Each structure stands twice: as structure tokens, then as C-alpha cells.
Amino acid sequence: MSFHFIKDQDFADFLTDLIRAKIVVGPVAKTSRQQEKFVFARLTRVQDLRLDYDVTILPPKKEFFPAKQDLLRFDGPRVKACLEPVEKVLFGVHFYDVKALDMTDALFKEKNEDRNYTAHREAATIVVSNIRKVFPRAFWASIGAEVKPRGHDAWLTQIVGGCVFETGTLKGEALLKFGRFSEASADQVAAARRANEDMGKQCLEQLKGTSASNAKKVRAAFGKEELWTKFAEDCFSCGSCNTVCPTCYCFDVQDWWNIDQKSGARTRTWDACLTEDFAKISLGAGAAENFREERAERFRHRFMRKAAYLNEKLGGPACVGCGRCSAACTADIADPTTVINSIPEA
Ligand code: SF4
Ligand code: SF4
After folding, report:
1. Cα of 195 to ligand 1 centre, how many Å?
2. How far is CA 276 from the centre of its chain?
3. Which of 26, 68, 124, 286 could covalently link to 91 via disulfide, CB atoms 3.0 to 4.6 Å apart?
């Protein structure tokens, strides 16, 4: 690990050279109806990079686990894998999204490693940017503090006069050649640390309790059907809370045939456990069973997964407090702080 410094006036040149040499994906603005939102997109010019973003609509997970991904293509008996990982730099990822990537890394490596995810992940260099504006629905400062981000290669922090660039891996070090970096002083490193710590004070939405106490009370509330029915009263079963979540990783796989009935593709698409058909299984002969038929059961399942079921495997809750689900839910009932805070202690 080493600490470097780049002056404000040298930053644009650094990014320009990086964009010329590599595929660089970063947060850019997407404006609609006077509302400014942000997405991760390929950068073609430095002016588009918006490190002052609060949150992106979709998490950077989509770069490794796209919403729709061909796994293989076939033509009669000929089958070809579609795995062609492309080297890229994800620039400006917030630390909570790195924590989420660490979780999907672990889950996709579990048992049978999923190369359709891990190969893309290995081809990426991840540069964190310090959070410069807090998303009003975010609560990352009060959830899962015991889980530290690990999967990044470098961490950029804006301080007075420039940025401290902390490298943690060889891939992170390899970016230094694109900019006029000097060694960071102890004062600059301390200023960067303070800048990251101080931002937590602006993250006002709060999840109460510890990860362990929340896991315990959420699990203990499993049988309180009235509670879940009330929580899910206005749920449309749209699945938006799943779709925007950086830690959700369920998918569906289907084979598609072309009109020649010989060729086609095996494709995976994101799935969402809040949707009505998620847990519907075939019993054969046209019959089916849905083992989470009620929306309250599906709503409860999401909270069991986020706050309790995966904790042991991940070292903390499967939620990083990004606030995307709260913002994406039309009925505004998906906010984990509202739901978990209102569950009585076990
Ligand atoms: S559950 Fe909501 S707040 Fe938590 S990681 Fe998923 S989208 Fe973010
Ligand atoms: S909780 Fe909200 S976002 Fe999630 S499925 Fe229900 S209505 Fe859709």
C-alpha cells in the first residue's frame, strides 16, 4: 500500500491519458425532468466524469453481472461460450459499492465458481472515490461497520489542492504512470483520512442497533405475519427494490431459439424475489406451485436475506446502506431503516 498525491491542475491530464489507454467506466449525469441522476457509463472525455455524484441508479455490479448476459450460443450441435472478459477501469466507485462487490464476489465463488461473473471481475481495476455528496436515503454510516471494503485497487480522496491516491494492489499501482503523482505527505494522508471519516457525519438516515441485534430481531419476527402483511400492504411486487440493489444476485436462465429452430443462445437475466413468479416452480403436466405466493411472504423474504440469512457467510448484513431501494420504491415501503427500526427487539 502506498500513498500518492496529484494536484488539481494535473487531474484532467491523468484522466485523459487513462481514457486514451484503457476502457474507463465512471459516474456520469443523466438528466430527465429537471432531475439529475447518475449512471456508471463508459467515459470518452474527462468532463463527463462526476465524482460529486450522490448515488448511481444501478450499482457497478452491472459491469460484471449485466441485466442480460448471453452465457453461450449454439447452432445445432455447435456450442460456443460467450465469455470474453474485457479489461476496464471502474473509476469513482463509492466504498459501499465495493463492499457490495466483495459480497457478490464471495457468493459467485461459492461452491461452483461462476466464471461468467468472476472472469469479468478479475479483468477490472477498481478505483474508489471518497463520497463528496451524501444521497439523502443512504444509511451506509450506520450499517455493517464491521465489514470493510476490500475489493478495490486504489482509493482517491479529494483534499485541498488535489487528491490523495492510495494504491492497494499492483493493478492500482499500474495507474500511477498515467499521471504526475508525487509521494503524499503525512499531512495529506491524514487530511484524506479525515475527509473520508467526516463524510459519515452527513449520512443522516440511520439504522439502529448492531448487525447482530438486527439479525436476531428480524429472524425472530419471521412468524409475525400481521407485521409483514402491514409492511407489504402497498407493495406492487414490481421487484424494483431488488433490481437496483448492489447485493442482489439472483438470476434466471433461459434458452432462446432463432427462427431457424437450430441456433440460439442461453441467456441469463436478473431475477427479483419480490415478483410474483419468482418462487413459482413447475410440477409438470402444466401444474405449478408458488411457495411464496403472498406478497407479505416475498417482502419478508427480502428482509430475511438482507438482515439475517447471509450474515454468517458475509461477515455482516447483505445490505450496504446505499439507499437505492428506498428511492426506487414507488410506494416508499422498501427502506431498510424504516422496516428494521420498527421491528420490536427480540
Ligand atoms: S437493500 Fe437497499 S439499501 Fe441495502 S444494499 Fe440493497 S438497495 Fe442498498
Ligand atoms: S417493496 Fe416497493 S420496490 Fe419492492 S416490490 Fe414492493 S413496491 Fe416494488
Report:
1. 24
2. 24
3. 26
Span 46-70, average pLDDT = 97
pLDDT above 80 (res 225): yes
CB contact at 8 A, 315 and 146:
yes
Q: Are 159 and 132 in contact (CB under 8 A)?
A: no
**Atom 5 in ligand 1: which residue has the minimum CA distance?**
319
Q: Kindly report the average pLDDT of the chain as a whole number.
A: 97
**Separation CA 240–CA 230 (nearest Å):** 19
Ligand 1 neighbour 306 (Cβ under 6 A): yes
Please identify which residue in the block is written with the cell numbers 494492489: 169
Q: Helices 211-220 and 295-304 sit at what angle, rounded to 10 degrees?
A: 150
**In the numeric block, which cell numbers belong to residue 102?**
466483495
pLDDT in tens, 140-191: 999 999 999 999 999 999 999 999 999 999 999 999 999 999 999 999 999 9
Between β-strands 78-81 and 2-7, what pairing exists: parallel, antiparallel or unpaired?
unpaired
Site to substitute for ligand 1 among 137, 322, 338, most atoms within 8 A of C-beta: 322
Taking the model in full, what pTM does it have?
Answer: 0.96
Joined grid coordinates for residue 90: 471502474
Residue 199 has pLDDT above 80, yes or no: yes
Model pLDDT for residues 289-299, shown as the tens digit of each residue: 999 999 999 99
Give 240 Cα–ligand 2 centroid separation in angstroms: 6
C-alpha–C-alpha distance, residues 226 and 232, integer Å: 10
Q: Which three cell numbers stand for residue 216?
A: 436476531
Give pLDDT, residue 31: 80
Rounded Cα distance, 179 and 259, in Å: 52
Q: How far apart are CA 164 and CA 7, in angstroms?
A: 9
Q: Tell me which residue of 313, 325, 308, 164 sits closest to 235, measured CA to CA.
A: 325
Count CB neighbours of 59 within 10 A: 25
* Whether 279 contacts 291, CB under 8 Å: yes
